[in-house]
Amino acid sequence: MKKIEAIIKPFKVDDLKEAMSEIGVTGMTISEVKGFGRQKGHTEIYRGAEYVVDFIPKVKVEIVVDGEMTEKVVDTIMESVKTGKIGDGKIFVLPVDSITRIRTGEKDKEAI
Fold first, then answer.
1. d(CA 50, CA 98)
2. Would you state the pLDDT for residue 37?
3. Which pLDDT score, from 0 to 100, does residue 80 have?
4. CB-based contacts of 38, cutoff 8 Å, min separation 6
5. What is the pTM of this model?
6. Geometric angle at alpha carbon 31, from 56 and 40, rounded to 5°
7. How far apart are CA 37 and CA 32, in angstroms?
8. What is the rounded CA–CA span in Å between residue 26 and residue 48?
9. pLDDT tier at 49 (50, 70, 90 boundaries)?
10. Model confidence pLDDT, tens digit, residues 69-95
11. Which among 70, 80, 94 is positioned nearest to 9, based on CA atoms?
12. Is 41's pLDDT higher than 70?
């Protein structure tokens, strides 16, 4: 089992949700986060004063899948959220040792 974490632009969430549904992903967790990468933020003008915005609003998507689906999910994320511009985000793949569904006690693959 693998946990896939993707940091994406907020306006791409609906596109990602549709794409995940089409390939059979049944659940995901989404969090609003802030951060920066190579773009290192940007400057904005507010009431005539210029200031630096270091942390850009992003969305963190977490999906746990059976190991066999990992590559398909990663490819689908890339296809559905890519704009080709700086700040498109990153995808991380991490191992998952075990999962337990609290309500039923189901373990691992059955709990996904």
1. 49
2. 78
3. 96
4. 86
5. 0.84
6. 15
7. 16
8. 47
9. confident
10. 999 999 999 999 999 988 899 999 999
11. 80
12. no
Please give the full DSSP string across 3-46, using - where no structure is assigned. Answer: EEEEEE-GGGHHHHHHHHHHTT----EEEEEEE-STT--EEEEE
The yes-or-no verdict on residue 103 having pLDDT over 70 is yes
CA atoms within 13 A on the CB side of 98: 6
Q: Both tokens of residue 41?
A: 């933020």
pLDDT of residue 90: 96
Architecture of domain 2-111: 2-Layer Sandwich (3.30)
- Between CA 91 and CA 62 the distance in angstroms is 10
The answer to whether residues 6 and 60 touch, using CB atoms and an 8 Å cutoff, is yes
The domain ranges of the chain are 2-111
Q: Distance of alpha carbon 89 from its chain centroid, rounded?
A: 8
Neighbours of 36 (CB within 10 A): 14
